[in-house]
Amino acid sequence: MENDDRYWEILTRQMPLLDKEEQEKFRNAKITVIGCGGIGGQTIEMLARMGIGSLVLVDEDTFDWTNLNRQTLATANDIGFEKSKVAKQKVEQINPYVNVECFTEHVDESNIDKLIQDANIVIDALDNVLTRVIVSRKARENRIPFIHGAIHGTMGQITVFLSNTKSYEELFNLPSFERELTSDVIDELKGIASTTPPAIGPTPNLIGCLEAIEAFKIITGIGKVTVVPKILTFDLLDFTSFTTEEL
After folding, report:
1. Which of 11, 22, 54, 56 lies 20 to 30 Å from 121 when distance is taken between CA atoms?
2. For residue 245, what pLDDT is reported?
């Protein structure tokens, strides 16, 4: 009972926005976040602070000095350590009532089933198109909402794919749409945005916050979800650019 009371104490400022039953839905939910860097780190932290019940955190990489300008889970003391393990430790420090699993693995067709098993939502905090295709296909197959977010410099975009909407590949007219992932198709996908994009701290962190609140809306049922074909886009150098478009 003491632990239960402490969980609700953490959420004291949040609870005027929803009822206890809605928060319990979030507490009983499981979210897989693929990518624990710039976008993923902020998504993970916000989900923990909002009281998510279970998190599965996936990233194959380790922190390095180039991550410090934007990846909020990273400090100088974390350089060289696995991002997924650091993320798990940070979540446990922020909210000890979150169940956390972490995987330091490259995501592909051989392990995606394991990573999204029993997930209520899959969140895209990735930096390459091929892995997004693999993850989005499997989420769609399992009728799991797939929250997509991406950035380039000061620009960002976010939307939510459901099993009855256009797919990620269809919406963005990818060459893999309705094709098997043969070696030729994979090479085509690898060629899309193959260079490392520029990034300034606020951009991925804003996308991460938006992905977290979209997950919160989906699970609790409060608010209006940004569902395909609608997509929220912005450029932080021009605040008049914040808009919801239909693709």
Report:
1. 11
2. 85
